[in-house]
Design a protein that fits this description.
The protein is of the alpha+beta class. Helix content is 38%, strand content 20%.
Length: 422
């Protein structure tokens, strides 16, 4: 359950406002929390007065004494009912106000983006797409005639996608993979799947739709309402997120002896993306790990090291990025991303993002832990991860595409050459 106690931490509001102007929302939460506390205190005092008034009443009390006591109890009970009638809307409004606030960035969340000092792969090696771009621009004293092409152009040239067919089936903005396209997509997914399985993650298959309550529990609502695709009343097409993995453990008390629990799911979602212009369809892997509070600190580092090996095997340039506080997802208190370089477009694209969420999702979704049956449950710590198959595939296409119209596949994807389709 969300609560206002998080604002009792020194500097909490200042760190929250690194994400945006949340001062008015935080002030509203504090005012509602104070009012809730006042109402609860009033109820407690009235109940104590009734209890104190009842104890000295003797069984042989006179009729007058009994009637006077009854009037006082009835008056106190009526006042308790009035307070309850005021308290319930106050609690509901407070919970709604808290639900509109994102997680508070951690103390070590930087105010600006931090990059690794160098890309993990030399971006100017002879024969790569970066080298051809440099040559075409007259850099390094070379004379390059190759024309760098973006991933969606390469995919169409190699017969990996059918833009016309996709528009016929759905509309512009969705993908239809053909030829070797489905195999390459599955191969990328298998590499990422292997990274999670090596860290002890268990695969699950999530439902085809997700409800509004589950999206709220996972902090997708209200923060990304405009990006969601409604399917029917209070049901949505699952977004590209870890919402289903979080919600499936909602309102659950976990035995700490069984922790950590790790799950991942692969799927296709709908979200605006940039490496295939106009495309809204994304193939992705989502993961979530649940820990006892304080035990999840090293999970992000372990996942990033595992992903480092995957991207090295693909032979594509990438870098590790620490997200700035203002760029964090709503549920995250810190985040590390792996960005791949798209040489034809001359920019970096997020291929993976690992978020430490602290106990925010545990409190929001009601995911709790305890060591013994008699212990008071505590919110669980949650770490989430998202990997975008299509971003990885786009980087492979742009990096390994060779003139004239041949794709040199890295060994991790089966090796060999794919020629252009006439």
């Amino acid at each position: 359950m969300l609560d206002a106690a998080v604002f009792d931490t020194p500097g909490a509001e200042e760190r929250l406002c690194l994400r945006g102007d949340y001062r008015a929302a935080a002030a509203r939460v504090r005012a509602l929390a104070r009012r809730e506390k006042e109402l609860i205190d009033q109820k407690r005092r009235i109940m104590q007065e009734i209890d104190a008034d009842t104890k000295p009443l003797r069984k042989d009390a006179s009729m007058h004494q009994s009637l006077a006591w009854y009037d006082r109890v009835r008056s106190g009970s009526e006042r308790l009912s009035e307070l309850d009638a005021e308290l319930m809307p106050c609690k509901k409004e407070l919970y709604q106000a808290l639900g509109e606030l994102p997680n508070i960035p951690a103390d070590d969340a930087p105010a600006r983006v931090l990059f690794t000092t160098d890309a993990e792969k030399q971006r100017g090696a002879s024969g790569t797409a970066v080298h051809r771009i440099a040559a075409r621009l007259g850099m390094n004293g070379t004379d390059g005639a190759a024309q760098a092409e973006a991933a969606h152009v390469i995919a169409a040239r190699l017969g990996l996608s059918d833009l016309h067919g996709a528009a016929t089936v759905a509309r512009m903005g969705f993908q239809l993979l053909t030829g070797e396209g489905p195999r390459l997509s599955r191969a990328c997914a298998a590499l990422l799947r292997g990274a999670f399985e090596a860290e002890g993650y268990a695969e699950v298959m999530l439902p085809a739709l997700i409800c509004e309550d589950a999206l709220f529990a996972a902090a997708e609502l209200p923060f990304r309402r405009e990006a969601l695709y409604p399917a029917k009343k209070k049901l949505f097409v699952p977004p590209v997120s870890c919402a289903g993995l979080i919600a499936m453990r909602g309102d659950e008390i976990m035995d700490e002896a069984a922790l950590p629990m790790r799950f991942f799911a692969q799927g296709t979602g709908v979200e605006e993306q940039f490496h295939f212009p106009g495309s809204e369809q994304r193939a992705y892997t989502a993961a979530a790990a649940f820990f006892r509070d304080g035990d999840g600190a090293g999970e992000s580092g372990r996942l990033c090291e595992r992903l480092r090996g995957v991207f090295h095997s693909l032979g594509i340039p990438f870098r590790i990025v620490t997200r700035a506080a203002r760029e964090l997802p709503a549920a995250a208190e810190r985040a590390v991303a792996v960005e791949v370089f798209l040489p034809a477009q001359g920019r970096w694209e997020t291929a993976a993002q690992v978020c430490g969420c602290g106990t925010y999702l545990g409190r929001r979704a009601g995911i709790r832990t305890r060591a013994h049956e008699e212990d008071k449950p505590r919110p669980a710590e949650v770490v989430t991860a998202l990997l975008y198959h299509d971003a990885v595939l786009a980087a492979v296409l742009e990096e390994h595409y060779q003139a004239p119209g041949v794709l040199e596949l890295p060994p991790a994807l089966g090796g060999g050459r794919l020629p252009a389709v006439e």
